[in-house]
Amino acid sequence: MTPASRQKFTVPKLLEHKKAGQPVSMVTAYDATFAQLADIAGVDVLLVGDSVGMVMQGNKNTLSVTMEQMAYHTRMVANAKPMSLIVGDMPFGSYQTCHKDALTNAIQLIQSGAEVVKLEGGIYMADTVAAIVEMDIPVMGHVGLTPQSYHRMGGNRVQGRGEGNAAGSRQRVIEDALAIEAAGACALVLEGIPLDVAEQVTQQLSIPTIGIGAGPHCDGQVLVLHDVLGLSERQFTFSKAFGEVRSVVIDSLSSYVKDVRARTWPDEEHSFH
Ligand code: KIV
């Protein structure tokens, strides 16, 4: 059960946290079960991320995730009725074509239970962010390593190290962040960038930055749920397993298999008479 004292985390609270210097905690969630557990644990923001394509579907990147799938996972998370703020990720192809598509798809995510939509991109996405914000739909931006730019980046690679002003350069990451704030975003994910770039962006923005692989100076942190739990097979350098759920799951299932094979399950106590 969510503690009775817990209040709903809302969009205005993002800004309040920034002003008060209070860190924002965010994890991904893809279903009602884990949304409820994260809510009970006191997580501020649940991101229904398009990382669902890799984490749950086993794809090598996020590019094949559809609007239908994002709406489905958003509904599952919303069904947990969490006190955490629900952010729904706009998948690749759902907002790049034109403002009308972006608005239609943002509305679909909100109708599925998202309270904020998130989209990737900087300067070239600022108009799209502004168009959605003008319709009173809060937007969270996402710059730096943007997984939907997988092919441009040559894989999921750290950004913000290069000179010049090309996409992925240090200067460009900063300009992208400023453009997304100016467009009206309520918060900004900074992914896969050097910690000093993240620090500079965080100091320059008045909206909270939420980092993943962006060091300790961001206003908040986000990690993929399965990584936090220690459920993933692979551990990334920037991530941390705060639990050992993978071994707990394997041990529990091994015990079940053993008992079924030994015919010690089900026993009298767990049978109907
Ligand atoms: O989809 C996702 O999980 C994300 C996070 C990595 C921020 O966008």
From TrEMBL:
Keywords tagged on the record: Transferase
Biochemical pathway: Cofactor biosynthesis; (R)-pantothenate biosynthesis; (R)-pantoate from 3-methyl-2-oxobutanoate: step 1/2
EC class: transferase
GO biological process, one term: pantothenate biosynthetic process
Keyword Transferase: yes
Keyword Transferase assigned: yes
Pfam families (alphabetical): Pantoate_transf
GO MF annotation, one: 3-methyl-2-oxobutanoate hydroxymethyltransferase activity
CC terms in the record's Gene Ontology section: cytoplasm
InterPro entries in UniProt: Pantoate_hydroxy_MeTrfase, Pyrv/PenolPyrv_kinase-like_dom, Pyrv_kinase-like_dom_sf
Assigned EC number: 2.1.2.11
Family as reported in the entry's similarity comment: Belongs to the PanB family.
UniProt name for this protein: 3-methyl-2-oxobutanoate hydroxymethyltransferase
Organism this protein belongs to: freshwater metagenome
Native organism taxonomy: unclassified sequences, metagenomes, ecological metagenomes
